[in-house]
Amino acid sequence: MRNIKRMLGPAIAAIMTLSALALLGVLMTPHWQVEAETGHIRVTERKTAISSRLGRTATEGTYATKQTRVKVDLGGGVSVNAIVRQPEGVRGPVPACLFIHGAGTGKAAEVYGDLAGALASAGITTLVPDKRLDTYTTFHRDYKAMADDYGRSFDLLRSWPGVDPARVGVYAESEGTWISSVMTASRKEVAYSIMTSPPVYPGRSQMAMAATAYLDRVGAPDGIRAVIPKLLGLDLSVLGLEYADFPALSYLDGLTQPLLVNFGTEDVSMPIEQGARELIEKAGEAGNTNVTLRYYPTNHQMRTGSSLSKPGLPLEPHYTHDLEDWINGVAMGTDAHQWATPMVAGSQPAQRFAAPEEMGPGLITSLRTLLLLMAGGPVLLLAALIGSVCLGLAGHGRGKSEGKIKPDRTSPGFGRSMQARLWILGIGSLAVLALTCLYAVMVVGHALSLNGLSPTERTSWPALKVAAVILALILASVLADAISGIFPTHARAMGGKGQVAGPGHWITFALTAAGSALILVVLAFWGLFTI
Questions:
Q1: Count of CB atoms within 10 A of residue 309's CB?
Q2: Residue 294: how many CB atoms within 10 A of its CB?
Q3: Which of 16, 90, 124, 169 could form a disulfide with 119 if both were Cys (CB 3.0 to 4.6 A apart)?
């Protein structure tokens, strides 16, 4: 009977601790998750060629081109460099195209040269400005202000000699399509819009889809993928990432211009089917059915040779020809019913995950709170370590001055195995937290390089979960023994004695238990107690 009573307390403590951590894991999980994409687009025409029924258009290489470097005044004493490429020997005013940077580019001399040069040789004047970088950082981006800046370049292009101001449009890639959406919504003089690899949805939503797709591609454990909604549902204002919630969809109501949308089927970061349907529907609601959609067997940058965006990769060979034929076709006045080629064509897309339309946090609502929790545990354990060292030094001093005295139940110290368990709990908690963070970084590295995880790397996640459970059981045992020691009658009934004696040891115990508990809460956030 005494053995049963002795086991009952730790068993109850273990059940309560594991249940609490599992419940916290559930409460920290948002009500939404990244679902599978179910609305697929069926492509029946594999050829991406574009032609108008109104007549033939100039082909690539028809004209020699001239390149001019200019400065664009953005106001307030700020200007950016830009490159104008224009066809030579063409008769009459020509259409023109302004290029808008995506997230990874900034200098006109380093990007779009192949695209802009090809378009110019087909009779289309192009302007590629530098991105304004003094107001553009990792943590701050104002897409409306950026649209105003690009508007200065747009106005310059419309006034350029030989350009027809009524036939000037915009070409944007990736993040740049948010900027071009602002421009098309506010500037009705934009004659057409080309969106290549557009995220379509707000950044937070698109990133949730992209991160899940990348992790799925490399075979990341379900537990790691389940963290994505928890992280991307947080308030990120501590980093100043307000642009993650840029209301991208609201600007699509102004898509009244002819629209060309291009996606690469090897691009797992964009909503290549869901986003395309959204653009077609938004344009249709605005009365615009002149939307052409093309899919290429390419990466995010319309280049072949790798699913990743790497320097030096060649453009898809038909891409620039299709751009030129579409722009020149629009310049001729081609409407939705006057294209000789299908509105949707190219490689068959296969988007696996959908960008969530509604997002929100779980029990932990902000990144600031999560970071405080992650830092709080190690800080408390550091304080416990300092306290333990101080207690050891104090005890050593007492031993020298008083001689060897056999300790009794009231002597300051830890009973039986308490000290060993506290050391295991503290060091183990820090180790598992560090290993979890390192594992997450390792998985992210695999995802960014699209290298699948090895079998050993996959089994490391269950090993971390087992380690976390063991730590929770140790925490439960030390709490049960410490509590039993507070009540001497109960302690004697349990066949033991107090496990902690002395104020200094109680403080060290409390710091160790609290620090480890905080780390276990963080591990619950990371899904290590999820069944």
A1: 16
A2: 28
A3: 124
Residue with tokens 């920290």: 28
Looking at the structure, tell me whether residues 261 and 145 fall in a common domain. Answer: yes
Using CA atoms, how far apart are residues 456 and 509, in angstroms rounded to an integer?
37
DSSP string, 22-70: HHHHHHTS-S---PBP--PPP---------BTTB--PPTTSS-EEEEEE
Query: At 407, phi and psi to the nearest 5?
Result: -70, 145
Considering only CA atoms, which of 37, 117, 123, 35 is closest in space to residue 84?
117
Q: Same domain for 217 and 130?
A: yes
**Alpha carbon distances (Å) from 406 to 318, 389, 409, 410, 411:** 89, 21, 10, 11, 9
Same domain, 313 and 381: no
Determine the structural domain holding residue 432 and report its residue range.
Answer: 2-28+363-525
Query: Which secondary structure element, helix H or strand E, spans residue 2, and what is its range?
Result: helix 2-27
Beta strands 259-264 and 163-173 are unpaired
Q: Are residues 6 and 121 located together in one domain of the fold?
A: no
Burial tier of 96 (Cβ tally within 10 Å: 0-12, 13-18, 19+): buried
pLDDT value of position 432:
97
Examine residue 356 and state whether it is found in any structural domain, yes or no: no
Region for 502 from its dihedrals, namely left if φ exceeds 0, alpha if ψ lies in -120 to 50, beta otherwise = left
Give per-residue pLDDT as tens, 199-247: 999 999 999 999 999 999 999 998 899 999 999 999 988 888 888 899 9
- Strands 500-501 and 413-414, by their bridges, are antiparallel
Task: Please give the Cα distance from 268 to 145 (Å, whole number).
Answer: 29
Listed residue (412, 416, 389, 392) closest to 499, CA to CA:
416
Task: Report whether 84 contacts 68 (CB < 8 A).
Answer: yes
Task: Please check whether residues 284 and 135 belong to one and the same domain.
Answer: yes
Arithmetic mean of pLDDT, 261-269? 96
Q: Are residues 141 and 212 in the same domain?
A: yes
* Amino acid sitting at position 42: R
Task: Please check whether residue 414 lies inside any domain of the structure.
Answer: yes
- 137 and 211, same domain (yes or no): yes
What does the buried/exposed string (b/e) look like for 243-278 if buried means 16 or more CB atoms within 10 Å of the residue's CB?
Answer: bbebebeebbebbbbbbbbbbbbbbbbbbbbbbbeb
Residues paired with 128 in a beta bridge: 83
Instruction: Report the 3 state secondary structure along 294-327.
Output: EEECCCCCCECCCCCCCCCCCECCCHHHHHHHHH
With 0.70 as the threshold, say if the pTM is over it: yes
Q: In this predicted model, what pLDDT tens digit does every residue of 42-94 receive, in sequence order?
A: 999 999 999 999 999 999 999 999 999 999 999 989 999 999 999 999 988 99
Residues 342 and 371 in one domain: no
